[in-house]
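seq:
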Amino acid sequence: MRVKKILVPFDNSKNAFRALNVGVSLANKFNASVILFHVAYVPPYGGFQRSNADKVKAMTYVKRIMSEATKICKKKNIIYEEIVKYGDNPGEIITKFVNKSSNKIDLIVTGSRGSSLTHNIFFGSTSNHVLHKSKIPVLLIK
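struct:
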């Protein structure tokens, strides 16, 4: 298996950090790069607009958590890229991105929180979606 680009969905959870550490180790082993992928929650339009202060607060949070992830990549001298997408369904956004052949993702390393609805008791709903809808290999870190 040729691995040159590893996507790591990152949401600042403990298992996201575990997944990032595994992704960085694999990138080191395969001389690959890492894509740090974050989906910033934007609720579906419901007639109310969020204020600019809310948007600034959200972007400040995203920058802070992504800086924690980039520190890990920098420490291990891994080439990385940060991608932030916006929406209300992270699993769908992640799989749409990785399934697009022009993005050339070889592997997804994702954490699973397991704290979602009853039918997602073993995997988080996002990681469960990615696991079942991705056209490329997924390494699930618990």
